[in-house]
Every structure is written in C-alpha cells, then in structure tokens.
Design a protein that fits this description.
14 strands; six-stranded mixed beta sheet; Nitrilase/N-carbamoyl-D-aminoacid amidohydrolase; binds 4-methylsulfanyl-2-ureido-butyric acid; 308 residues; 26% strand; alpha/beta
Length: 308
C-alpha cells in the first residue's frame, strides 16, 4: 500500500514594504483555500512569507523589530491557522521569529488539527553582518538572525518530515542530516535574489542551481523535496520563482510557471523513498563513514608544497 501525501507548494509573489500584514494574510489564505480545494494535506509557504525579504535593507530599531513575530500561530496569523484547521489541512510557514531578545529565521509546521508539530530555525545564514553600501541591495541575514540548533525531523502526515530554509538547500549536509534521521519529505521555503553581488557571473545560473541542489538532495537521499519561492520583483529586487516538488528520483513532478501567487500540488508517495534507500542509497550497507578517510567535523589540510 502506498503512503500518499498531497503536498501544495504555495508560491507567494512580491510582498511590498508597505503591505499591511492583514493583506498579506488574505493572500496566504487564498492560496491555502486553493491548496485545500485541490486536495492538499499540507500547504507549504515560503521563507519570510508574512513580510518582504527585509534583510535586503539596512534597518535599525522599531522599523526592524516590526518585521518579527513573537508567536506563531499568534494574534496576527490566527486567521490563517484557524482556516487551515477548519479545512483540515496542515501548514508550513516561514516567518521572522522574536524569542525575547533572540531573533531567528524560522519555519513552523502545523498539523491538520492546528497543533504545532515542529519549529525549525535556519542554520545556514548567508550574506553579511555589516551595512555594505557598495551593494545594490543588502543581504543582512547574519546581522538580523541567530543560527538555529540544527536539523530535526518529526512524524507528520503519515511520514517523517524535515524542514530547511533557503540557503540551507545549497548544502548537502542539510539533506543528509535530515535523511539520516529518516526524513521522507523535506519542506524548504526560499527568497533567492537573482543578482549575486559578490559574483554576478552566477546570476544567469540562479534557476539551474536552484534545481541542481534540490534535485541532488532528493536523489542522493531518497526523499521528496518541496521548494517554495517568494518570487518576483520585490522592493525593486528580482527574486527567483521556479517553486518545485521533486521526487526521490530527482525528477521534478510539479513546477510553478509564474512569478506571482501560485499553487502547485503533487501526490507524494512516501514509499518511493525506499526504492532508493533500500537499493542504491542503502546507507547501512554502502555508506560507511569509517571508510571515507576523513570523518570528523574538521577539514583536511593539504600540506604546503615543499619550498624549492
Ligand atoms: N534567503 C536566502 O538564504 N537566500 C540565499 C541568497 C544567497 S546570496 C547571499 C540563497 O541561498 O538563495
């Protein structure tokens, strides 16, 4: 018997700086409603879905603090989670979290019953710490967020689910650490500016790299990967769309075709994971870290060449 989870990736178009939170929430509820109408068990929203991607601006004080949520589900997100519970659908939502004096880039997973299943705080924080006026726009995640405590999985929707956020998807450890814990479905929200100021030569490859890392992560770990964009031109900055749902084979089974609010849905058979995990990627049989030569968390160092 197959274990099918119907997953909706709810891509969100630009959220402008002046957009009231309630207006954004209405858009998310419309996407949720469409996902539920199309049979979704869980609707996945992007990273920082409630706000613009504010690390692109150098901000301080109250203006900066206005982008964080103290509680999710909480007062400002209640209508979304109430509607999800009424519809009997789970939700994964990215947002900026404030926990007392601490700030995180967070994604929450809520079950069909409205209960929080898990909360993930982003581990790989890209960009820079200080204002760098030479850039056409900032990427101040390293100033605005603290790192989370690692990758964890949860039982949900009849399977084992893990979460990751945006830049995490470029690192093989993300998928491997989750799949070593048994993850069958990895939910990833992202905001990816197409322009990369430190090396603009990469700009033309933004879509290619997006698929490359998620498809490789899915295939090499025998799991489903769901990548969901905050897409389009936001605050004058073009962001990658191309939200996609990827099977354990590495094949894309659904992909968005716009740069705005759009829902894609796929029937994800979690039992397909075993096709890979019990054959080519049978970790217990073939993945023997003690044979790799370097298994510590340290990097190997090649000795410098002999001085001639
Ligand atoms: N949000 C996020 O993590 N974006 C990064 C941009 C990298 S460039 C600083 C990403 O990996 O897509």
């Amino acid at each position: 018997m197959s274990r099918i989870v119907h997953v909706a990736a709810a891509q969100v178009g630009p959220v402008e700086r002046e957009s009231p939170r309630a207006e954004v929430l209405d858009r998310l509820i419309a996407l949720l409603t469409e996902g539920a109408a199309r049979g979704a068990d869980v609707v996945v929203f992007p990273e920082l879905a409630l706000t613009p991607f504010f690390p692109r601006w150098f901000l301080e004080g109250d203006e900066l603090e206005s982008f964080y949520e103290d509680e999710v589900p909480g007062p400002s997100t209640k209508p979304l989670f109430e509607e999800a519970r009424r519809l009997g659908v789970g939700v994964s939502l990215g947002y900026a979290e404030r926990d007392g004096a601490h700030h995180y880039n967070t994604q929450v997973l809520v079950g069909k019953d409205g209960q929080v299943v898990a909360k993930y705080r982003k581990v790989h924080l890209p960009g820079h710490e200080e204002h760098e006026p030479w850039r056409p726009f900032q990427h101040l995640e390293r100033r605005y967020f603290e790192r989370g405590d690692g990758f964890h999985v949860s039982r949900a929707f009849g399977g084992v689910v893990g979460m990751a956020i945006c830049n995490d998807r470029r690192w093989p450890e993300t998928y491997r650490v989750l799949s070593l814990q048994g993850a069958e479905l990895i939910l990833i929200g992202y905001n990816t500016p197409i322009h990369y100021a430190p090396d603009p030569g990469q700009d033309r490859l933004a879509g290619f790299h997006n698929n490359l890392v998620m498809a490789a992560g899915a295939y090499q770990n025998g799991c489903w990967v769901v990548g969901v964009a905050k897409a389009g031109i936001e605050g004058g900055v073009p962001g990658l769309a191309e939200s996609q749902i990827i099977a354990p084979s590495g094949e894309v089974v659904a992909k968005t075709v716009t740069e705005g609010d759009e829902v894609i849905v796929a029937a994800c058979d979690l039992d397909l994971c075993d096709n890979y995990r019990k054959t080519l990627f049978d970790f217990d049989r073939y993945r023997l870290p003690e044979h790799y030569g370097l298994i510590t968390s340290q990097r190997g160092v090649v000795p410098p060449p002999e001085a001639s």
